[in-house]
């Protein structure tokens, strides 16, 4: 169960790196002279716990930092920190990023340098907005700013290395394939809507009947068509907490993220007209599409290349990585217990006792 959950999390982590990189590198606790390794409790931070081909190694301090910084961003996995299966997967991920970053050529390093700066700026801004600011976030995570910077650079280099393995024609073929499956997949739109809900989003409990919701939605529609102010009516009527205080607006949003009925309306409604109520599982929406466009291939090819590079990363983890590991002192997961043999239900051939 744990391994299945963590495989899902690994996919999420790689995807997250393209948006807001998480952190790790080499050290936690008290720093050495280099500032990159530290004592982990009574364990020796300099102890080499994993070696891999071409002289690669991971120390206890380096691994503990990798673990701690991932847990800082994925707090729900703290319960698994001592689980051997979890530690083994974390080790594989750390070795993967180290090996692939070492393989980065000059082009990949140049691309990674630009992305690293962007990612670091985003992370620092985000952490600075949290309680206590960035300093507290790093302290609570038991890492340093140097650890953060090293990992961002390493991870960006690793991803750039694998992106370099994705040829241009494969990226274009994937774009054409997705467009053929869904012509609106790369559409973005600015949409205003007022939702008249039928249930409490937190509890699922019904708040009004569908009939009452439709009647109220038509009332909103009439008010808008008669010149009513969208901002004011959204605040008064909308049950969408994510947009009601913003005039019901979602600006330049990918329409593929929305439920099918809302997506269809966003893709097909005439621009700048008040719609009839659109029914979804949330209730009834009165909509106005203010703008709509499709992203071009050039606008999405970078994201597509990153997604396709994930396949190469998974292939590396599954096929090449096991051949690189030479020694591994981390605990070995206990195999699941074998099911006890079931009593036979076949009829006996013994002669009954008389």
Structure in words:
With 354 residues, the chain is of the alpha+beta class. 49% of the residues lie in helices and 13% in strands. The protein has 11 helices and 7 strands. The protein has helices at 2-17, 60-73, 84-102, 106-128, 133-141, 145-163, 168-181, 210-225, 230-237, 260-268, 297-324; strands at 48-52, 56-59, 187-197, 249-254, 278-280, 283-294, 325-328. Strands 4-3-6-5 form a 4-stranded antiparallel beta sheet. β5 and β6 form a beta hairpin. The longest helix has 28 residues, at 297-324.
How is this structure best summarized?
By secondary structure, the protein is an alpha+beta fold.
N-to-C order of helices and strands: HEEHHHHHHEHHEHEEHE
Please tell me how large the radius of gyration is.
Answer: 27 Å
Overall pLDDT, averaged?
84
- Strand order in space, largest sheet: 4-3-6-5
Low-confidence stretches at least 5 residues in length (pLDDT < 50)?
A: 1-41, 344-354
- Label the overall shape: elongated
Q: Tell me the fraction of residues in β-strands, as a range.
A: 5-15%
How helix-rich are the residues, as a percent range?
40-55%
Largest sheet: 4 strands, antiparallel
